Amino acid sequence: MDPPFSARLIDRFVYRYCDAVNSGSQGFVLTNNCTETAWFRALWEVSTGVCFPKYRINFYKPDSHPKGSSMQGQAIFYAGDDYPRFKSAFQSEGLITRGGLE
Fold first, then answer.
1. pTM for the whole thing?
2. Helix, strand, or coil here: 20?
3. Cα 36 to the center of its chain, rounded Å
4. Residue 70: which residues within 8 A CB-CB, separation 6 or more?
5. Can you tell me whether residue 49 is helix, strand or coil?
């Protein structure tokens, strides 16, 4: 999931995702690394692993033109039952750490 980064909307997306994970779903979430927010901590708590990329992720418009450089770093959250595979796939991309579901 790549939720909208609007402060008014991201909470709704994140908490719905967290409810789905708590009900047995698995998935990935790409967000800004806003470690000071409640929604970031909620994602952390339901995640098996997190990747903090060593670069800022560039986003593209539908016409395939870059939107410009990201102003903030990102985090990729993983909730699932195959942490070793997640770690193997993402370890070359940045710092990998366990989430709250160790």
1. 0.87
2. helix
3. 15
4. 56, 57, 58, 59
5. strand
